Structures
1.
Amino acid sequence: MEQLNRDCFCIGVNPSALHGELESLLAAHGVPAALATSHPHLFSALPVYVARAHVERVDAVVAAVEQVVALPAYRSAALAWAPGIAGHDPGSPGGLLGFDFHLGPERPRLIEINTNPGGALLNVLLAQAQRICMPAITAPPTDPRAAEDAVLSSLLAEWEGQRGAAPLRFVAIVDEVPEQQYLYPEFVMYRALLRQHGLRAEICAPDELVPRDGRLWWRDEAVDLVYNRLTDFALQAPAHGVLREAYLAGQVALTPHPRAHALYADKRDLSLLGDGAFLAAAGADADAIATLAASVPRTRRVTPDHRDAMWAERRGLFFKPAAGFGSKASYRGDKLTRRVWDEIAQGEYVAQALVAPSERRLASGGGALKVDLRCYAYRGQALLYAARVYQGQTTNFRTPGGGFAPVLTHAMTADAPRS
């Protein structure tokens, strides 16, 4: 598979056609857009090839994390550094997760977990539009035709977990100034998907939500479920106070919710998930311990007692804020200045052993871009794979030739060569 990433340049996706399909969808819902102009690097034209053994390892990591998160000792440790709102258990796991990996020659390494991973429906569209040049040898790791239903099912399962058999009627898709978010086209796709299945759904900002008569309202609609795309994971901002109070009072179902972020996506959790001794003491089984200890790069909290040692080791470390997202305020250690290092000391950071990403060449004799692998999962089950192709320190959508890319692996029925 590494050879294919170096030498295969068959066009797997036509980005212009995908942009056109998205623009048609937006226009059908009254949203003018020109994605080729506003989002020129949303999709990469080339697929990324991943060995079947790596896909199976990712599946095992996803299942192992789910097993560990269910352990009382793990929950106690993770909630000890979480904000108080994480102690509220609404009854559901917390929605779709995004597991992000760097691919090494031996195994994938889990870089982080996200609780509101963008791009799921966009990558469903991408997978469905993909043209496979070697169908006897390569195939998507999961069935893209089933992925859209799985994404919807995860939302419905969240509702059932929090409300049981009560009827779900209205879903609010909530983010700050949603029309200005880079992935706003996906919000429109979520709204369309929910409406196709007989639900009422709207996209709104948190300040459009109003408490009344023991419910949360958007205009004249009582909100049953909030699909939460906010990056204020603990709902601490004053602007999110109405949503926070309604959630705590059980007046609205919320996914993803603060407890899910605390248990899965706080970067400090990786210091537990990769610690074999802790996992053994917590009661994880031997397979989960072996899988996670081999797959999670060593991650430590940045604390005053080992601050000087970390500065000395910084060239082999990557520093991330505990509640960060989208690589914001994250730094490669070899790029750190003393000024930024002093700023890190004022916040809550982790230091993770640096794991180089794999690469995808764009053309024969041309340069290569970096690759992250994302697995969208729910309740320990991998649902969809996608890659993010980029240049620079962290993933972005500013690289010509980069963006979301379809993933292909060995076809299960093929006598495929080893990668």
2.
Amino acid sequence: MSKDISFNTEYWRFLWSSILIALSACLGNVVDSVIVGNLIGEDGVSAINLSKPVTQFMFTISMLLSTGAGMLVGMELGRKDYRRASYIFTLSTIGCLAFGMLQTVAGLFFTDDITRWFCTHEQLLAATRDYLFPLMMGAPAYMMSWALATMVGVDGSPRLVSAAILIDNAVNLCCDIIFIQWFGWGIEGSSTATVIGHIVGIAFMCWHFRYPDHHLQMAFAGGKAGATFRAMVSQGAPLALASISLTALLFCANSIVLSTMGRTGIFAFSVCMNILYIYNLFLSGTCRTVQSLGSIQVGGGDNEKFRLVISKSFRFITVAMLTTCAFIWIAPEAVTRFFGADEGDMIAEGVRALRIFALSFIPFCYIYTAMVVYKLYGYHTIALFISLALSLTVIPVLWVISLTAPDYLWYSYLIAYAIEAVAILVLHKVTHARFQLKSSDMPPA
């Protein structure tokens, strides 16, 4: 009984710490949009949303190099192979920093060109460029914030990560107001504040390496670099593919909505995407807990506790999603006005879109969590399918509805996720049947 209580305590410690880690992405985007919407206007909120394919791409690479590495580090810590765990940590850190610096170089020379790829509306072009440039200059900090949070958390300091994330967001919030309201930097001040917040948060997380009981350190020996790097990428590939698919979806959805519904539509869509961050606050925290705590149980060979992690996670995400959805249905107009809307048509479109998207995000959260579980159980084919289909299913549905029934454009996500849920169920049954057939063909031990 005492072991069950201890594990239950450990689970909730991981979960709430992971949720606070996810708070960085949530507040870093939502707070920016709220402040920009109220101090600059609706077009500022739209500009932030149009910039998201770039920031999502940076997040994807960080996830590929750190989330997969974090799973492997958790397994090695479960086996008490600290030398191997440190080597994986080192490769992941170097990879994130190197890619972040490449993004900075690209920003120095190609920001204008990159902006025109994602924004075709002249009225929104300048604001999108001004928001994007500081983010690309701070790309190393953006990537290391996520990567270091993953490693420090799995190494036993989730509370320190939580505190660092709270400080990160507090600095971001204060600098947002100072840079926009006092310094008059406009929307550029908002993204600059985000980068500064990440830098401060990283500095606090580095304190973990002064603790005497930490296991991870910079180590340049512990295996073959090529094989280790491939293992990191392979482990993180389903989540990274889901993220890169989301990047493609953001780009395509922004383009379709902007061309179909103009400024009013893109603002309503931007508000909906910000609400997705609220769902993602709980979703990301849940998935990070399954990845970190679950991988430790897998590494230690404790299948019973691994199943307990999964059941607790699905129960929590269900309650969190239904609560968030109910709030949006009760007060959609208040949510729309919260992001700075003051025009009647924008408020009306925002209300209509929010209620539909509030329902659409529920199957999205279940499907995403299932992908993580399939990966840890070794169902790599299903995990890979989900990672690709999660976003790519939406694109053709969105495109077809924009051409045939544009008045129903907001239903595209809900229809696409329903289609994917059916496809996953079929694939699961086929894969499970094949596994049972192979097991029956095996000779007895």
3.
Amino acid sequence: MQITWLGHSCFRIVENDYTIILDPYAPGSVPGLLPLNESAHLVLCSHEHADHHGTDSIHMLPADRENPFSISRIPTWHDEVKGKKRGKNDILILHKSDKTVVHLGDLGTTLTPEELNLVRGCDVLMIPVGGYFTIDAETAARLVKEIAPAVTIPMHYHSEKFGYDVLSSVDDFTALLPDCETLNASTLDPDIVRKPGTYVLSPLYL
């Protein structure tokens, strides 16, 4: 499996020559990021905000092969007041026999014990860490400890080169967790990482 961070909360997942794009951003919706130029067999979005629902940016490939994943969603909220500020958010879960990938979208609230049980121990967790629109670094770090994934990939944060100014940097998140590594790469294969931990990727479309 190859997981590539395209930028913001958008990822490309390739397994058995089947490509899935998660939360594509619309052109111009995320400061500092280039427009997406991607093709996929399937596009999944956590919610309908432009920086997560730029489906028109993705070229759809022919449905000539089987999706190796089963797909499920957990309905949650984009804020701490049950959607009154920013609406709904779905946690996206991709599962195959030996791997479970969880994308939290723009999660803006804590998870219930029942929701935690559905994602606990996943192989890969993609989690927003920048705060303001989503959970903040402290809440995200606590959630990582509760979920205990093998691999954590932070997303939806600000740097000097990209992202919304109101978001915090990824450093605020990684400072709260052990076993963090910054990779000079956009792609990660969870099967060959050297050890469990948090991996900070470089956005492909910078």
4.
Amino acid sequence: MTATPLLPTPRPGILDITPYKPGKASAEGFANPVKLSANENILGCSPLARDAFLQAGEVLAQYPDGRGNALRAAVAERYRLEPERLILGCGTDEIFALLNQTYLTAGDNIVQGQYGFGAYAIGARANQAEVRLAAEPDYRIDVDAILEQVDERTRLVFIANPANPTGTFISLTEVERLHVGLPGNVLLVLDGAYAEFNTDPTFSDGMDLARSADNIVVTHTFSKLHGLAALRVGWAYAPAAVADAVDRIRLPFNTSIAGQAAAIAALGDEDFQARSLALVEQWRPWLIQQLGGLGLETVPSTGNFLLVGFPRSGGRIAAEAEAFLAGRGLIVRGVAGYGLPDHLRITVGLEAHNRAVIDALADFLQRPAAG
């Protein structure tokens, strides 16, 4: 009888995790399609950041500052924060993973909205924790629904504000109500990846609330407004005890010399930031108006993107629209993986991109429905 060979075995639950699937980046037949699938800054990045990145090419043989002290100082000065309470990460994705790894054990749980960013759940399941999804009526975080999911094994609550992929947000008053309703041992993580795009007077990224709280972490990224998605630089403002705990398992040199230098330069280029925000402020409402004129529903968004609904009753489903747009060299994001099979997420682009999307969708909707 032949013995069964011993093989390395992943820990329970790992092979049950669905890998994160990013937005598409190519369209058949187009060498340079218009990519509106990843909420990237359509203007690119700050020229100052680009110069800093290129200059970093002179020191590629060197390790970066493992603590990222210069970047910590720049972020701390810009936001009036204590640098020792900052956590730097290879994108905020790594920070979410580190928080999960630091605070979760088997049998614990996290709570997030039903349409929450997939990275939260991946990190939790990797640590054998349960992921609890709270209903989002009208595609918006519901504080009461979140609190109903919290129990004695809840360790983290993740809220993207504004949310991805919906673009909706909850006010500072609602964030405060959520925080008050949580036990003190539950960490509230406020993901502010799109916070800079939200100009509503009732909105706050929660930074001021976090200054005096023992269980709030606020994260930001250089990938969206600053256009440095390729360099993977994110940061978090956390209670000192949380920052210390996370730093004990953070891998050394997790942000590169080039990433740190470009992020510092980007942070100082307020002109580029202003132009990026102005573009979204100009074309987001135009897109909403035009899409509405085509009979399509848009979820109210305060991000640099829109979630667009395709009612099945009209016989035009989102997957067909996504394929049709790709045939025109326009790549948008199908969000069926988020439980939204009847929607597409579309990044706000340049004028020519936005007009091309509307023209293509108008043509799509005029075609006879399949079947």
